[in-house]
Write a structure and sequence with these properties.
The complex is a heterodimer. By secondary structure, chain A is of the alpha/beta class. Chain A has three domains: 195 residues, 3-Layer(bba) Sandwich (FAD/NAD(P)-binding domain); 121 residues, FAD/NAD(P)-binding domain (3-Layer(bba) Sandwich), CATH 3.50.50.60; 110 residues, no CATH class. Chain A is built from eleven helices and 24 strands. In chain A, the strands form six sheets. In chain A, strands 13-12-11-10-9-14 form a six-stranded mixed β-sheet. A six-stranded antiparallel β-sheet of chain A has the order 19-21-20-22-23-24. Chain A has a four-stranded mixed β-sheet with strand order 1-6-5-4, with no helix packed on it. By secondary structure, chain B is α+β, with helices and mostly antiparallel strands. Chain B has a single domain, classed as Jelly Rolls (Sandwich). Chain B is 34% helix and 24% strand. Chain B has five helices and eight strands. Chain B has a four-stranded antiparallel β-sheet with strand order 1-8-3-6. In chain B, strands 2-7-4-5 form a four-stranded antiparallel β-sheet, with no helix packed on it. The longest helix of chain B is centred in the last third of the chain and has 18 residues. The chains are: A alpha/beta, B alpha+beta. At the A-B interface, strand 8, strand 11, strand 16, helix 10 and strand 24 of A face helix 2, strand 1 and helix 4 of B.
Chain lengths: 506, 148
Amino acid sequence: MESLDERPFPPGDYDVVLVGSGPGGLQTAYSLARTGIPRCAVISRDPAPGGMFRRFPVYQRLISWTKPDAPFERGTREYEWYDHNSLVGDEREHQALAPEFMDRTFDVPARPEMEAALVEFATRGDVRVRYGCEWLSTRREGEGFVLGTSDGEYRCRVCVFAIGVTEPWVAPIPGLEAAPHYVAANAPETYEGKSVFIVGKRNSGFELAQGLLPWARRIVLGSPRPVDTAMLAFSPLSIRYLSPYTEHVRGGTGSYVVDAAIERVERHANGYRIHASGTTWEGQLELEVDEVIAATGFRAPTLDLPTMGVAMVNDGRMPAQTPYWESVSVPGIYFAGNTTQASPGLRKHGATSSSGSVNGYRYNARVLARHIAEKHFGLGGERSLLNRDEVLPHLLGELAHAPELWTQKGYLARVVDIDGDGIRDEGIVPLADFVDRDDGDACAVAVEYDADGTVIPVVYLRRGGHLEEHHLPPHPLHRFGTDEHRQQLTACLAPILPRKAKASRL
Amino acid sequence: MQLGLAAVDAPTASYVDALARLSLFADLPHPQLEGLAHSFDEEVFAEGQRVMRQDVTGGGFYVILDGEAKVVIDGTERARLTRGDFFGEISILTDEAPAADVIATSVLRCLIIPDNELKAFLLKQPSVMYRMLQVEARRLRAANVWNR
């Protein structure tokens, strides 16, 4: 770690400026440093690595799993699917750091364990950051941007914002501003014997309710959208936060989950009065409670980006992005980390990317670094060549074990280009980008949910300008390398593979 | 990490306000509009970005909140779409992959209802289904040329 008197990246001219030192920032910085782009600066207002995990979750336990022991050895690419919290390195000593810090009380890390793993990644991976340098403003200048910071101005051609989605967002409900937000909720014991109304029924709402179950007299969670029990089966929420909902469904011991639009919140001497209208039922609700907590979520701290023309989505809470995480309205501005969840992918059957958690956006960062190097700086672009006979085992292996495909289901794909010059492994790319390209013949494989929510391998072929989609069969143990899969993939590939090998591996 | 409530620019029209302006949802009372806004995502596409894809399965039902798009079949432009227009429902109702691409011709903002949630939504909100049916009837009348 740098000491204050040798802080790297002073203000000045750079190729790329990256803002943020949370897991998204660290992963992007690590990957950018390996692209060959000569001048990449990384700045952060924080004093140390870790981002949101220096403080959150408020009740100090994550919801994403890391299995210290797994069918694959720690440090292998295949192991990454069993470890959703470590950042991904190019060398063994940078890999699989989260399990090194876990005490195995749970299969999900505690917040300090996660923070320690991130600090270790920054140290071992030599991720250099100018800490204590706060981004304050943004403007365009020529073909690039100028970022005003607490240390001075940075000029760059490309900026990447890995700024998290950590700024409290309070829903525009009259009177709700008088209630504390989730981030300002007190220790659970301070709610002893109280009646608590939690506005919101997503991660933070259920996390609070779970924490308050042993203390509060009554807990009501309210928001317009019903809890989607079918979706909960796919949600990391199901690991820990479902007790309040279960209590409600079973008739409750003082826990209620209500579908209602909150019309207004009135503060009075002894507490609050809630006025609400049913959304899945008809009628009005008036509730007297001791405490109200706004668990209405977060927004990305985008400062002046919207006034610069960066289009926002999700009620203005996140920047809208292309499949490569570039602003849809201001080219040259990219996003990394948690914010990339605002690029949902093809949304087949409603399924969106896993970019709202470390396991998804760690791969986005790698793809992004390569994309920026190739598109803006003409660097890289080398691809491995494959023999004809290597294509089938390569793609089958990816479908079976590629952590990028398994984590970013329906978002990231493995692509092989096939043209007159040979067969090239294009690596991991956003599926939407593959589907929308009008290039030559190529094949992509992805892991997706089908219409019933079953995990299946999917093959996309682009041939003569037309796209074909083939669904391969599911397997009860998710084994996608069976003889049946081999046969079906062989049949899919036959029309685009050359009859004879045209190239050998470089 | 600092978590100060920095001053931020409010969006010009909230998501629920944008929904309220559309004739498709004109009969929904406010709590139902709130429910709609909380249940289904909005998405914003870059100019030139593909929104719906010919021959790719699993697509959703899209309602344009802002911006414009073109309908392209086998590379030929067939129609233009603008605020209040919707697409994707035919492929969901017939359980077939879309027969057209829809491509944004400006920054385009849409509401999206996933294929597997459209039926339940329409059955719960018959007023929306009725207004959809009116639009489909007009499209059918415009498409048919009867021999006299």
